[in-house]
């Protein structure tokens, strides 16, 4: 397994997949492909997994059929491991977290994110689909604050992904199962630990959401992630956590506490790499009023018309990437919340020279997917090629 981890680091791969009845697959620039032709059986998957688990973790997996943990390979990075059972056999998905937190300026993120992370209080949500780069962007933002402002940064994670060094701030990172027995217990005790900034990982339920609001209302900057497509979908999801009778109070608290919702998607560039398209919903006075009144469906229109510096919709972010030559028109259209609005922006900028793609036309990103990934695979360093990865097991 450690050799696979090294391979992920060298290729800058995002994930590997171990599943019975298939070869090991590796995902590079969003494209998954087999490492070799060896088909894994149950013993092979179990053997690879056990190489990076403790005895306690092995017992937990055998008893619960689920395990989420992280493994740090010194000099390489951290690997987020999700082990589970499917069709009665073990399966594993590993996400690669680079060893160093990337500087925020290297990620092409909007400058508004620097202002957001330096705020004294409030709630900031980072939302997006799995694999959209939420954790990386949030870590870069947090480390920017770490290098610019003194204070205490407290993170509650399951598991810890990026490891921060103490710079101007003291950073304490707590991992569920290692540093605390239960996430709710850590949440309840967080305010006693005098944090200036709290990262509480992912919001999955009402209790966690309520604690996040409590932190923000008590004078702390609280950061969290949420699975949602965009800002207004995130707000709708938060509302569904609460029964109808509690929603007026929730909306009032949200309108007063929210700093921003940042939504991110990774889009395919013309070179076959991936780049972040970022929507930023700042809690302006108008947005705050809409939230308080529960007019969530009006937020999209308000963002499009907003003159607040730093605020932008996905269409506006994609439009800039298109005009700068990073992405194709097809890629911009495919990732827009409103392809109609996206096309209007493009046509306005190009005086109508570009029109909507013909139905059935080949998607340029498909070729870029293959070309970019093949180029990445071709850059294998000596002594570590895909053919070197051999599993001493046969299918069965």
Q: Which features would summarize this protein structure in a list?
A:
15 helices; Beta-Lactamase; 3 domains; 6-stranded antiparallel sheet; alpha/beta; 23% strand; 396 residues; single chain
Look at the structure and name the CATH superfamily of the largest domain.
P-loop containing nucleotide triphosphate hydrolases
Q: Count the helices. How many?
A: 15
Strands, total number = 13
- Give the biggest sheet: 7 strands, mixed
- Please identify, by name, the CATH architecture of the largest domain: 3-Layer(aba) Sandwich
How many separate domains make up the residues? 3
Please state how the strands of the largest beta sheet are arranged side by side: 9-8-10-11-7-12-13
Percent of residues in helices: 25-40%
CATH topology of the largest domain: Rossmann fold
β-sheet strand percentage: 15-25%
What structural class do you assign from the helix and strand content? alpha/beta
Report the uncertain regions: 354-385, 392-396
Rg, Cα atoms, Å: 22 Å
- Taken from the alpha-carbon principal axes, the silhouette is globular
**Average pLDDT reading:** 89
CATH class of the largest domain: Alpha Beta
Describe the 3D structure.
- With 396 residues, this protein is an alpha/beta fold.
- It folds into three domains: 2-98, Beta-Lactamase, CATH 3.30.450; 104-268 and 280-306, P-loop containing nucleotide triphosphate hydrolases (Rossmann fold, 3-Layer(aba) Sandwich), CATH 3.40.50.300; 313-355, no CATH class.
- The chain contains 15 helices and 13 strands.
- It has a seven-stranded mixed beta sheet, sandwiched between helices. A six-stranded antiparallel beta sheet has the order 3-2-1-6-5-4.
